[in-house]
Amino acid sequence: xxxxxxxxxxxxxxxxxxxxxxxxxxxxxxxxxxxxxxxxxxxxxxxxxxxxxxxxxxxxxxxxxxxxxxxxxxxxxxxxxxxxxxxxxxxxxxxxxxxxxxxxxxxxxxxxxxxxxxxxxxxxxxxxxxxxxxxxxxxxxxxxxxxxxxxxxxxxxxxxxxxxxxxxxxxxxxxxxxxxxxxxxxxxxxxxxxxxxxxxxxxxxxxxxxxxxxxxxxxxxxxxxxxxxxxxxxxxxxxxxxxxxxxxxxxxxxxxxxxxxxxxxxxxxxxxxxxxxxxxxxxxxxxxxxxxxxxxxxxxxxxxxxxxxxxxxxxxxxxxxxxxxxxxxxxxxxxxxxxxxxxxxxxxxxxxxxxxxxxxxxxxxxxxxxxxxxxxxxxxxxxxxxxxxxxxxxxxxxxxxxxxxxxxxxxxxxxxxxxxxxxxxxxxxxxxxxxxxxxxxxxxxxxxxxxxxxxxxxxxxxxxxxxxxxxxxxxxxxxxxxxxxxxxxxxxxxxxxxxxxxxxxxxxxxxxxxxxxxxxxxxxxxxxxxxxxxxxxxxxxxxxxxxxxxxxxxxxxxxxxxxxxxxxxxxxxxxxxxxxxxxxxxxxxxxxxxxxxxxxxxx
Length: 603
Known about the structure:
Elements: H1 3-11, H2 22-31, H3 36-39, H4 41-55, H5 58-75, H6 78-92, H7 106-123, E1 143-148, E2 154-155, E3 158-165, E4 185-192, H8 201-204, E5 214-220, H9 223-229, E6 231-240, E7 246-249, E8 252-255, H10 260-268, H11 276-282, E9 292-295, E10 304-309, H12 320-326, H13 330-335, E11 336-342, H14 349-367, E12 379-384, H15 386-392, H16 401-404, H17 418-428, E13 436-442, H18 450-453, H19 455-462, H20 473-479, H21 488-492, H22 498-503, H23 511-514, H24 520-527, E14 535-542, H25 558-561, E15 568-573, H26 583-597
Parallel strand pairs: 1-6, 10-11, 10-12, 12-13, 13-14, 14-15
Antiparallel strand pairs: 2-3, 3-4, 4-5, 5-6, 7-8, 9-11
Helix pairs in contact: 2-5, 4-5, 5-6, 5-7, 6-7, 14-15
């Protein structure tokens, strides 16, 4: 025989075909009941169950698990799914002093997968706690008593609801599908805030409408003893990947089965975030005008936030491929957690950077009011394109450089309304954030983008609106004697036409204007160094092959994205501007994050 055909025969089971495994068929053939199963399956299963009680052998338990699941799938009888899960559990975790199955026994992994599938099939349509009491065993197996603590449905002050079975879903749009193989039925519920429950600030930071990977585990108290007594007592447990992914059973710690990529894909499938990308560039009200920082699960003390900042006309969804890969690395998952910042991408970059700074401060204050969590003071900012400029503004000391581009009059001497003064102070003067220890720049136009300077950039600018909080800014500045484009003549003549000043709002610098290589903002920011001890890295795509000099990614030149102070500079050849999903770029981010784990925190 062809060796592949032999291997298929030796490895098939009810998990992969309509035929049970060779090991299970051997049991029925040995007992002379193999052919009878097709004619009278329930009688054969009852007879096999009685023989198992007489011997309580692993062979019989495994065969019963497979054939019970096969019968359950054929008849859609959920009680036999429960029976299959019970037999598989009794095979894997003996409670009568019998040895645990050998790890190299092929039936061991098959039994775990069989338990997972049987349990998932038994729970479909009964995931809600109100329907768990519908679960039962076939009469010949015995009575079934199930307990469930509904407090397990609470997570981050929300309630887990709408449990979707994850193992039988196809995933598209992600390069790899990751799951953590183990024990349990993989589901993806949604955490929903309950009506009337007021969330604390730290819980409000957790993203809404996300799916989280969980594992439902049916723990049988004493499965083999219960089989002999004809009565099973069990409890349903929920294991959440955002908290713990290990289960202690039979004195052993085992991995919970979790479908992480499925949960990520379900979170993004049809999510409204996709509609905000272009809309959020044209109209600031399409996204939260004050920006929005959200965490992918509750913060755990000691873990370091990796804060993703998207670029122009983009969204947090563009990080999906990178998140999928990074979350699959156990070391990164153990030491880091993922945060996302969303903002109106057409607004002035200084204003957007001020929003990011405010959100980082708010988050740390809410999560660590005592200031004891060192992880929150070793943040890694990852900024793509414009997002990289926002990230840089968190780790520089600007002094008066940006204000000097606006006026020769010292800021404290300009007469402004109190609210305008506060706004400008926050958006024009920057000092390094005490929370950020490292920045990864991806496709970042440190010296501007040639696209922002051409007709396409000017056309894009014409489509935008200014953030609502900036509506009164031109008039306030004009009253203070600071000229704006289109109103300078009025000021000189002493005739302040307020309507004309208001119309000048449309000519306030947008993010596209800021990224023009000839803009005063772009030149000024390029001259300001990152303050030590912050460490920076650059990931720079170019469309051609080596060397990168004189090339670009379609938006930013290599020379604009390259900075001398970067500890490392990684060039991705043959890539366009949107390099966040490129495997080489993702692996470089992974390398940098692992590098940080081996370094002693700075002062």
